[in-house]
Q: What sequence folds into this?
């Protein structure tokens, strides 16, 4: 059984990607990163998802990007709320974390090389998050090239690294339908950028807005617990 490393955030996208990797016959290893994110409930969610979807192993690496800041997810910057879909898809939002996906993919690459795994799965999506430069196909293509140039396994030819981004062109509804068909329990996942102290989703940030819209368009009920509207 070939091995793969799955970047597992605890959100619905990465859970779906893990299920896809499993369905394709990979023995998958989850990698989650505590990067100082304010929505830390996603880390607990990642552990639950890894167990539910049968990860061979699941590790967490700590890299404190809050020391750099520059994002509403890692610094004292307000998380945007109540934005419509057209606004969300315009420009690069303040929830962009500088170099996050490059850091995360680099860690996954190192883990994959140690494991002898040539396949890396990531849940980036260019439809809903077109404003994030590190979620675009051209970025992933260049990182794959780097992976094969900058590793011992790549240079010596013992591994050919491939970046899998199966959700990159899917709508959120398509992602949810796919995951549901593969047995993903979305009640284990966490998407909110600004949850309360109990871990309840705000229902108003971009991540919540897109999640709610996706479930509605998929004709399914979102199992997330949201803060009651006032």
A:
């Amino acid at each position: 059984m070939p091995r793969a490393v799955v970047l597992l955030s605890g959100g619905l996208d990465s859970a779906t990607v893990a299920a896809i990797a499993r369905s394709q016959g990979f023995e998958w290893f989850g990698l989650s990163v505590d990067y100082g994110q304010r929505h830390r409930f996603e880390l607990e969610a990642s552990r639950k998802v890894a167990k539910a979807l049968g990860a061979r192993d699941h590790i967490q690496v700590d890299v404190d990007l809050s020391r750099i800041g520059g994002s509403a997810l890692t610094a004292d910057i307000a998380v945007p709320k109540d934005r419509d879909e057209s606004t969300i898809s315009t420009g690069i939002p303040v929830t962009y974390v500088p170099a996050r996906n490059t850091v995360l993919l680099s860690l996954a690459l190192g883990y994959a090389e140690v494991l002898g795994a040539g396949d890396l799965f990531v849940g980036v999506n260019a439809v809903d998050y077109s404003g994030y430069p590190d979620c675009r196909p051209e970025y992933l293509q260049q990182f794959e090239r780097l992976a094969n140039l900058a590793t011992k396994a790549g240079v010596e030819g013992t591994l050919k690294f491939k970046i899998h981004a199966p959700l990159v062109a899917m709508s959120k509804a398509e992602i949810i339908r796919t995951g549901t068909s593969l047995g993903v329990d979305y009640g284990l996942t966490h998407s909110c950028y600004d949850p309360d102290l109990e871990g309840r989703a705000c229902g108003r940030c971009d991540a919540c807005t897109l999640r709610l819209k996706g479930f509605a368009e998929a004709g399914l009920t979102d199992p997330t617990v949201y803060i009651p509207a006032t």
